[in-house]
Amino acid sequence: MQQSVELAGIGKGFGAFDVLKNIDLSVRPGEFLSLVGMSGCGKSTLLRIIAGLERPDRGSVAIGGSDVTELDPSARNLAMVFQSYALYPHMSVRQNIATPLRMRRLSLAGRLPLVGALAASAEVLHDIDKSVEQAAETLQISHLLDRKPAQLSGGQRQRVALARALVRSPAAFLMDEPLSNLDAKLRAHMRNELAALHCRLGATFIYVTHDQIEAMTMSDRIALMNEGQIEQLGTPSQLYEHPATLTVARFIGTPSINLVPVEVLSNGSVSLFGHVLGLAAGGHDAGPATLGVRAEHISIGSEGLPLRVLRTETHGADRFVHAHLLADETLRVTLRLTAGEPLAADTADVIQVSFPPERAHLFGRDGVRLAALPTDRVAA
Amino acid sequence: MTLAMDLGPVSASAAAKGRSKIERRMMWRALLFVAPAVLLLAAIYIIPVLVLAGFSLTDYQLGALSTRFIAFENFVQAFNDPVFLRSLTNTVIYAVIVIPLGVFLALGLALLVYNRKRSRAFWEAAYFLPVTATLVAMATVWQFLLHPSIGPVNAAIKWLGFEPVAFLSNPTLLIPTMAMIGVWQILGFNTVLFLAGLTAIPKDLYEAARLDGARHPFDRFFTVTWPMLGPTTLFVVVTTSISAFKVFETVAVLTKGRFGSETLLFDLYLEGFEYSNTGYAAALTLIFLVIILVLSIGQTLHLDRKVHY
Question: B189-225, pLDDT tens digit by residue?
């Protein structure tokens, strides 16, 4: 139930295109690890390699310490939940959930249709039935056991797919964007349920998603993938607070991080449109760089960087102010105000903003994070 | 007060009148829209069947000046007619060979061809060729192939050291031989149908089955392939049955009904067009129609419940 998954030097190409480039990743037993990234970053391929549905060109996969690179998916003792759920449409919910147990516990003769019932031992069949009912109870679908998948709603199908995965005790659960076919409200609900399920089972979960909110809310650790490589591996707060690259900074967080071009001067100080910020870039050659600040770290004051307000957006607890730099209309900035904070600015007004320099992220031309220390409180 | 009460029902009935007028106009429009389909169906199917049913109750002969109403005498005669009964038996034997072989061989071929990557197109075309060829022409080729003295099939049998087989004159072998030709002819069509069915099976069902522990190909076949091919199989079985019961060309070309090898359609053709017994032929046609109808309705009802999810 709780097994580690180790990937070493995984490489995979389709034709001349390298989908995965030398991936090393170790998933701890009982961990909820998300693989996130844009579509085409290789996250699904990586999951399929773990499942055994794709063969890696290079590298090895180990589950619970033993090498399974050459093993068929059926022999890996993994359970997978597909984006489409992949339920067998001709079987009832009960039969769907029972399939993994029938495949493992019954002989080939016992698995045959029609004649199988004669060859299978009654005790094993009874056992399977009990396990199926338990799994159905865990996911609150006991009342649906005799329906066909076509008679179920999307959320119910999702639960059946989960029940089919957890009816046996697999070494790990693999999930390939399982929530992406659900509507927004149900998705938020299922996020909580999945997290709770993970807590209860204590099993290893490897979860693929392109939705950073899913990854942030459920995971113990996130592996953010980009162009076939793991860009950063860490806890959700590590990724949010210390993005290792510009890609990570852009991908994680809603609303997106505010990015503005800056100039690192030869003495290490950082200049934004001629204003020297209270930041010192350590050990970096002078040249253009990118400054990132999250919406909640910007505050409106009587002095600072001048912005022109475009519009404000109310989200209940939060309000977002969308504005652009007075110096450059194309550079958009989003600020977050908490509900109590009064906003003394209307559309087209000019406001002045500042941010604590220790909250700023500085990225070099290659997109890699630069060490930057605050010299003083910033005033633009 | 009274005025208002009086007005109530009047205006209500006026509204009802207005509504029914609109309803009637809508109904006329609806009829106008279905008219072309109904008229075509009537002209092409329904009226001819009614005329046929009418003929089947008379002793009409093509070109005869007078004709008599003889009620069900034609049907009574048919079930006492040794030629008709023989043709019925022959057709059933033919169908019993052609339907299972034509369906299951095609399924097997489709499974084999489906997994070929580069050669798939070639095999598809190869097995489909007999479908595109005219059976009349092909029957002539088969006549040569199966010829007892000059045919290559018998040459091969002799080379293996066996006695030559009279495929097309030995009465017990005639129907099975023609059934084999029937299977050969229909195989490609059914294979292509099964291939289409296989292509439509979602890949992730196979992947789910593998992760569920389906290690044996049989498991994958019985968990995914066979149930998912249900609708295709139903269609293939029904079309194969109908074409099996319609066997005609092979008999007409290979034996012309000699050695007791008549089939339903061939007997019908003889009565209707060779002997000009229009009334009797009409009765046989009705019997044929009933058989086809019962078969296809029965199969559809029986299998439909199991096949669709």
Answer: 999 999 999 998 999 999 999 998 888 888 888 889 9
Per-position DSSP letters for chain B, written without gaps between them = -HHHHHHHHHHHHHHHHHHHHHHHHHHHHHHHHHHHHHHHHIIIIIHHHHHHHHHHTB---TT-S---B-TTHHHHHHTT-HHHHHHHHHHHHHHHHHHHHHHHHHHHHHHHHHT-SSSHHHHHHHHHHHHHS-HHHHHHHHHHHT-TTT-HHHHHHHHTTPPP--TTT-HHHHHHHHHHHHHHHHHHHHHHHHHHHHHTS-HHHHHHHHHTT--SHHHHIIIIIHHHTHHHHHHHHHHHHHHHHT--HHHHHHTTTGGG---HHHHHHIIIIIS--HHHHHHHHHHHHHHHHHHHHHHHHHHHHHH--
User: B207 and A79: CB-CB below 8 Å?
Assistant: no
- Residue closest to A170 by CA, chosen among B216, B205, B213, B214: B213
Kindly report, residue by residue over A156-193, the tens digit of the pLDDT.
998 999 999 988 888 899 999 988 888 888 888 889 98
Q: What is the pTM of this model?
A: 0.78
Evaluate the CA torsion angle A57, A58, A61, A65 in order and state its sign: positive
CB contact under 8 A, A108 and B216: yes
Determine, for residues B213 and A82 on separate chains, whether the beta-carbon distance falls below 8 Å: no
Q: Rounded CA gap, A276 and A274, in Å?
A: 6
Please state the rounded mean pLDDT for residues A332-356: 80
Interface mutation target, options A50, A53, A88, A151, chain B, most CBs of B under 10 Å = A88
Probe site for chain A from B211, B226, B303 (most A CB atoms < 10 A): B211
- Given B208, B213, B218, which is nearest A82 (Cβ)? B208
- Exposed, middle or buried, A255 (CB in 10 Å: 0-12/13-18/19+)? middle
CB pair distance less than 8 Å for A100 and B212: yes
How close A199 comes to chain B (CA, Å)?
Answer: 23
Lowest mean pLDDT among A210-214, A296-300, B77-81: B77-81
Query: A91, A99, A206: best mutation site toward chain B, by most B Cβ within 10 Å?
Result: A99
Contact: B222, A89; criterion CB under 8 Å: no
CA distance A81 to A173: 8
| % of chain B with per-residue pLDDT over 70 | 92
The Cα B296–Cα A249 span in angstroms is: 64
Highest CATH level, class, for B80-304: mainly alpha
The per-residue pLDDT for A46 is 92
CB burial class (10 A; 0-12, 13-18, 19+) of residue B35? exposed
Give B231→chain A minimum CA distance, Å: 11
C-beta atoms of A73 and B207 within 8 A: yes
